[in-house]
């Protein structure tokens, strides 16, 4: 499955300029509100009338404005699951699932709808109406309706965001199983970094209508190409930097020098993710620096620590670290100063 998209769309003052080439089956799209994520899906689905450019799926041209080609949405073999599901309240589950199968003989239409419902574990709910369903069941109906059309591309616009915490975990597992069986490509929009990481193979980072980065999820998270991509993928620790000889870099905002494993051409910023920061049991060693815990906050499973480096200029904290609760229990009774370690292989540098 290969998707090639060169799409431009304009809505009011907002402009989308999408360049995307991917052969991955599950692609996550990340970006802040207003970045163009939903507009991207609508342009690919054929719902954005202002879209122009070129869109090709497995060699089949869906859009080529230079040649006057623009397939209507119903002919693109693209299905979209909306954030609020968009179920028809006056239709049963079976009728909702079968809605996109117009043109098929009634018997085949019913069989396809029931088969899609069965895969979503909805076979006992076929006669119910959306108002009689839970949020998780409605989400499964929307997904079954999309899959029943046997699309080449499945577009998912924050499909779990309307669910509570408990349901989200259950439905995410069902969604993961469904995507594993789906033979086409899925483009998945979400604000949740962890959700996208679990469900997708590749990540596209959007900002103000432009693609800032795309590639394997591991590479984007471990080696973001810019400070903006690092920020949009959840990195909380960044400092202005200057490259030194011998694989060393000076972190100007942190007041320290350290070694990095990544090559350093024109390094301007150095960064490390909060969950990659560790603590040494004793002073000394590579990239180990004394620090003090200024404050901390907690979730049910993790503790976030705000650290002041002894070498840093100014006041306040410089680094944010995340540790599991069991590790916090080991650390909290230690006398100050603690010693933070910035693994050379976890630190990354960017030139912009």
Layout of secondary structure:
Blueprint: E1 3-11, E2 14-22, E3 26-30, H1 37-45, E4 52-57, E5 60-64, E6 69-70, E7 78-81, H2 93-98, H3 106-119, H4 135-148, E8 153-157, H5 165-181, E9 185-189, H6 193-199, E10 202-207, E11 210-216, H7 217-222, H8 227-232, E12 237-243, E13 248-251, E14 256-259, E15 269-272, E16 278-279, E17 288-298, E18 302-309, E19 319-324, H9 325-331, E20 338-341, E21 348-350
Parallel strand pairs: 3-9, 3-10, 7-8, 8-9
Antiparallel strand pairs: 1-2, 1-4, 4-5, 5-6, 10-11, 12-13, 12-15, 13-14, 15-21, 16-20, 17-18, 17-20, 18-19
Helix pairs in contact: 3-4, 4-5
What does this protein structure show overall?
With 352 residues, this protein is of the alpha+beta class. Helices cover 24% and strands 33% of the residues. It contains nine helices and 21 strands. The chain has helices at residues 37-45, 93-98, 106-119, 135-148, 165-181, 193-199, 217-222, 227-232, 325-331, and strands at residues 3-11, 14-22, 26-30, 52-57, 60-64, 69-70, 78-81, 153-157, 185-189, 202-207, 210-216, 237-243, 248-251, 256-259, 269-272, 278-279, 288-298, 302-309, 319-324, 338-341, 348-350. The strands form four sheets. Strands 7-8-9-3-10-11 form a six-stranded mixed beta sheet, sandwiched between helices. α3 (106-119) crosses α4 (135-148). The longest helix is centred in the middle third of the chain and has 17 residues, at 165-181. It is globular. The chain starts with a strand and ends with a strand. The mean pLDDT is 91.
